[in-house]
Amino acid sequence: MNIRPLHDRIVIKRLEENRKTPSGLVLPTGSQEKINKGKILAIGKGRILENGQLRPLDVKIGDIVIFKDGYSIEKQIINNEELLIMSENDILGILE
Fold first, then answer.
1. How far is CA 4 from CA 15, 17, 40, 46, 85, in A?
2. Per residue in 20-67, pLDDT tens?
3. How far apart are CA 28 and CA 25, in angstroms?
4. 91 by DSSP, 3-state: which?
5. β-strands 54-55, 9-14: how paired?
6. For residues 76 and 85, is the Cβ–Cβ distance under 8 A?
7. For the chain, which residues make up each domain, given as ranges?
8. Residue 31 φ/ψ, nearest 5 degrees
9. Largest CA-CA distance found in the chain, in angstroms, rounded
10. Regarding the domain delimited by 9-16+34-95, which CATH topology (the fold level of the hierarchy) does it fall under?
């Protein structure tokens, strides 16, 4: 990975959508919304609190997470891949 996010920022690669229905029908690409699930590729060192202390992130590299969609999420092309850069606050949960 050629990027190291700062503070509480996280780099995520969005997971591919399942293009088949449970009955086996293949859906066209345009008929599906992008899913808000991805794999964490890189994380920052943590959030700097008001008192100056560093609070480490609750997620780690390799976690599969669900995140909210919003204007605060930055899309970047790095090494010919579309990656998402977001704050830890944009993550809703970790899939276990």
1. 20, 27, 12, 12, 11
2. 667 767 666 655 566 789 999 999 999 999 998 999 999 999 999 999
3. 10
4. strand
5. unpaired
6. yes
7. 9-16+34-95
8. -90, 0
9. 55
10. 10 Kd Chaperonin, Protein Cpn10; Chain O (2.30.33)
